[in-house]
Design brief:
Blueprint: E1 2-12, E2 15-24, H1 29-35, H2 38-41, E3 51-54, E4 57-58, E5 70-74, H3 81-92
Parallel strand pairs: 1-5
Antiparallel strand pairs: 1-2, 3-4, 3-5
Length: 111
C-alpha cells in the first residue's frame, strides 16, 4: 500500500517548488523530501537545516507521513516580523498606517 504526499518548498523568494510523491506506508518526512526532485532542481539548496512541517504545524524529520499530507520546508526568517512592522510604521507615520488610515472624504473619524 502506498501514500501520496505533497512536498512544498520555497528555496528562494518568489519561487515555489511543489511535487506530489508516492511512498510506501510507514515512510517518514525525510523519505518524502528525498523522493522529490527538490535536490535535482536546486543542487545548491540545503534542506537539512530547514524547519519542517506538515500542513503548517511543526514536525520532525523522522515523523511518519499519512496519505494526503503536505510536507513543508520553511526557510528561516531574515527579519523578525515584529521589528519589520515597527519599521514600516515608523516610515509611514501614524496617519499612514492602521485600520482607519484611509477615510472617505467628509467621513467621521473611525469610519
Amino acid at each position: 500500500m502506498t501514500v501520496t504526499v505533497t512536498v512544498v518548498c520555497s528555496p528562494r523568494p518568489r519561487e515555489v517548488f511543489e511535487q506530489a510523491v508516492e511512498l510506501p506506508t510507514g515512510a517518514t518526512v525525510r523519505d518524502a523530501v528525498s523522493a522529490s526532485r527538490l535536490s535535482a532542481e536546486f543542487p545548491s539548496f540545503d534542506g537539512a537545516g530547514m524547519q519542517v512541517g506538515i500542513w503548517g504545524r511543526a514536525a520532525h524529520w523522522e515523523q511518519m507521513v499519512a496519505d494526503g499530507d503536505r510536507v513543508e520546508l520553511c526557510r528561516p526568517l531574515l527579519v523578525d516580523p515584529k521589528v519589520a512592522r515597527r519599521e514600516r510604521f515608523r516610515q509611514q507615520g501614524s496617519r499612514g498606517a492602521g485600520l482607519f488610515a484611509r477615510r472617505r472624504k467628509g467621513g467621521k473619524a473611525g469610519y
